[in-house]
């Protein structure tokens, strides 16, 4: 009984990373948009960094989901 509850608690804690990923995505795109509106000529040079930040943030969400599933079914 206690082990089952511990699995659910661990999965819930691991899912907090997905919330961080959602906040990170909003922050990344919001800052890029603010910078692109201030200096449109430099926006093209920063697009690669935007995509890299997006990929890293998405990976955080996927990894936290993986850890939650491992905690539940592992």
TrEMBL record:
Q: Where does it primarily localize?
A: membrane
Q: Which domain of life is it from?
A: Bacteria
User: Site annotation (Reversibly protonated during proton transport): which residues?
Assistant: 58
- Which SUPFAM superfamilies does this UniProt record tie to the protein? F1F0 ATP synthase subunit C
Q: Which residues form a coiled coil?
A: none
V-ATPase proteolipid subunit C-like domain segment(s): 9-70
> Sorted alphabetically, which Gene3D superfamilies does this protein's record hold?
F1F0 ATP synthase subunit C
Localization (cell): Cell membrane; Membrane
> Which key words are in the record?
ATP synthesis, Cell membrane, CF(0), Hydrogen ion transport, Ion transport, Lipid-binding, Membrane, Transmembrane, Transmembrane helix, Transport
Instruction: Offer one Pfam family short name for this entry.
Output: ATP-synt_C
Give the record's membrane topology.
Answer: Multi-pass membrane protein
Q: Which residue ranges does UniProt annotate as crossing the membrane?
A: 6-29, 50-73
UniProt xrefs under PANTHER family: ATP SYNTHASE LIPID-BINDING PROTEIN, MITOCHONDRIAL, ATPASE PROTEIN 9
Q: Which NCBIfam families match?
A: PRK07558.1 (NF005733)
Q: What does this protein do?
A: F(1)F(0) ATP synthase produces ATP from ADP in the presence of a proton or sodium gradient. F-type ATPases consist of two structural domains, F(1) containing the extramembraneous catalytic core and F(0) containing the membrane proton channel, linked together by a central stalk and a peripheral stalk. During catalysis, ATP synthesis in the catalytic domain of F(1) is coupled via a rotary mechanism of the central stalk subunits to proton translocation. Key component of the F(0) channel; it plays a direct role in translocation across the membrane. A homomeric c-ring of between 10-14 subunits forms the central stalk rotor element with the F(1) delta and epsilon subunits.
Tell me the protein family, please. Answer: Belongs to the ATPase C chain family.
Entry protein name: ATP synthase subunit c
Q: What is the lineage of its organism?
A: Bacteria, Pseudomonadati, Pseudomonadota, Alphaproteobacteria, Hyphomicrobiales
């Amino acid at each position: 009984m206690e082990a089952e509850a511990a699995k659910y608690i661990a999965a819930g804690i691991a899912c907090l990373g997905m919330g961080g990923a959602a906040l990170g995505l909003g922050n990344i795109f919001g800052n890029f948009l603010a910078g692109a509106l201030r200096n449109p000529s430099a926006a093209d040079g920063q697009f690669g960094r935007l995509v890299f930040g997006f990929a890293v943030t998405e990976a955080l969400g996927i990894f936290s989901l993986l850890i939650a599933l491992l905690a539940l079914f592992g």
